[in-house]
Amino acid sequence: MxxxxxxxxxxxxxxxxxxWEGFFREFQAPLFVEDVTEVLAALDKIRRQGVTDLGPWLDxxxxxxxxxxxxxxxxxxSDYTIQWSGAxxxxxxxxxxxxxxxxxxxxxLKTILIxxxxxxxxxxxxxxxxxxxxxxxxxxxxxLLPRRGDKPALLFLATTEITDLKQYQLELITSxxxxxxxxxxxxxxxxxxxxxxxxxxxxxxxxxLTGWSRDSLIGQDxxxxxxxxxPDESRRTSLKVLSETRGRSLYxxxxxxxxxxxIPVEVSATIIPGQNNHEGQPQVLAMIRDITExxxxxxxxxELEDQLKNTQKLESLGMLAGGIAHxxxxxLVTIMGHTELLSSGQQRKADVESALGVIMEASTQxxxxxxxxxxxxxxxxxxxxxxxxxxxxxxxxxxxxVSVSGKAHLNFVYGGxxxxxxxxxxxxxxxxxNLVTNAAESLTDRGGEILVxxxxxxxxxxxxxxxxxxxxxxxxxxxxCEVKDSGRGMAxxxxxxxxxxxxTTKPGKRGLGMSTALGIVQGHKGGFMVESVPxxxxxxxxxxxxxxxxxxxxxxxxxxxxxxxxxxxxxxxKTVLTVDEDAAxxxxxxGFLRRLGCRVLSAGNGPDAVRIFxxxxxxxxxxxxxxxxxxxxxxETCRRLRxxxxxxxxxxxxxxxxxxxxxxxxxxxxxAFVPKPFRLVQMRRIxxxxxxxxxxx
Length: 697
Prior knowledge:
Blueprint: H1 17-26, E1 31-35, H2 37-48, H3 54-60, H4 63-71, E2 73-77, H5 79-85, H6 90-95, H7 106-117, E3 122-130, E4 136-144, E5 154-161, H8 163-185, E6 189-194, E7 199-202, H9 204-210, H10 214-217, H11 231-243, E8 248-256, E9 262-272, E10 283-290, H12 292-343, H13 349-376, E11 385-387, H14 389-403, E12 408-413, E13 421-423, H15 425-442, E14 448-459, H16 461-467, E15 468-469, E16 476-485, H17 492-496, H18 513-523, E17 527-532, E18 538-544, E19 575-579, H19 583-595, E20 599-603, H20 606-616, E21 622-626, H21 634-644, E22 650-654, H22 658-664, E23 672-675, H23 680-691
Parallel strand pairs: 12-14, 19-20, 19-21, 21-22, 22-23
Antiparallel strand pairs: 1-2, 1-5, 3-4, 4-5, 6-7, 6-10, 8-9, 9-10, 11-13, 14-16, 15-17, 16-18, 17-18
Helix pairs in contact: 12-13, 13-14, 14-15, 15-18, 20-21
């Protein structure tokens, strides 16, 4: 094999055939020497047919590419080529070169043919081969092409294997395609912007959601899609994500579309360092999710929770109604029975006094039960007030007694030195009622014990971690109410689901009480602790933080009204106007006042009271006025009477609590209040206070 010599004018020394042979054999890369004389002859024939551009002609005659292989004769190969090709010997390789050709090799052969056709001196192209031992190789080929007239026409081809590089390149392409597919197929909007707030990318979902084209958005400030954020705020947000949130931020905003709609979205923003993006600058990658359906679901869930709370409260009241009806019936039997015995007129004086005492005691119990029902119904000030847990429990103790079955023994232990808590007393009563009801239902048919205990103490972190559920409180001192039962207890899995809506272990129940209680206690910044062992009862404790309201804002606590200095005053000949639409109640008030020596004028409604007072105002010393009447109620009647005489003493009578009276009669001070049902001693004390001119102003 002869090397191609330089031109005669070149002064460089020639390479001897021996040196060339050694270089060719020992070169550590695949080298081929091919005789393409017949290929050139075939190409000359095509040229003579008028073909000037071989590329389109080969596209129309692809068989010529494979035919050129038959026209090519391999003269020699380097020793390294034998090893690289997987051949056992030079002879095997030279006789089996056609086995190394793949369909993917043909584009490189086409390039060689075009270069030969156009008379180029060099060739370079990527190609693929299959070795004789079955390996698939990627190569980069560089060739020295023969000159016209060379005899023989030899092609020198040097091959560099680039399989590893090509596989990395293919993996990179695949990765980019996969990344692009994930980005474009994502269900969320994916957007990136620089630290100045300029949008640099948005996926197809974002384009579909906003209605804008990609060209319209790229380069726009983030405030273009989020108008509530000014451009400088976009930059501050980016820097905040970078510096204050460890590279991550989550917030909600309104995304404005091309047609002006504002879509509620959740934005999760992450910083991408500069070295991880093609521009070399940090970027903020934002995942934007349309939360319209989630917000609608949350709204419906809140509505359902409100409905469930109302349903639970109705169920609780329904349960109470049965117990209260039973208790009232017993009281009515006592009152009606003794009244009927007295009406016969055949009892001795001692029996009459005893019967009257029993009737009065039963009536007092009925009145107390009514007051507790009013308290449970929440007829107090509607906002948070400072309360004492002991007072709340004491005021509803009778109500709790009648709400449990006869086989349940309910006991109370009140702790001392409990600081006030800031609560809605009506809601806390509902929590206690739910806990006691739950405890009663956990008892067996043989009954059991229920203990309600209050207190104030410090709770350690280990105790809270071991027993606390649902809402995690920090260690510290809390006022607490504990309800302990001797019932069936709960398995650990039931304990963990205790506050789940609808969860219950009791057949026929709906399991709403505990979830309602949880919502109320959490709303008061409190929490629950639960201890339970199967077969050994349950202890459920709710904790409430101590009130830290400044003393000057504490609600005024009115002491019991006293009139020791004027009770000796005679009420004889004092004139009182009584106003009540219930004739029976009015008759009792009239009777008490006459018993005290007063003269009485009576009216069955507000207009009559105003008329009578207008005619006899100089004779009337005070007015006993029912708060709730149809048409002109007590409040409006009071205003009209005070319009005639501003200093007129008024005593409101009502079955409502004093807090409710204060709310309804706000602005009408001074006035006194006597709760229904009233007693003679109460009426005497109130009227003595009013007519003795000691009414608080």
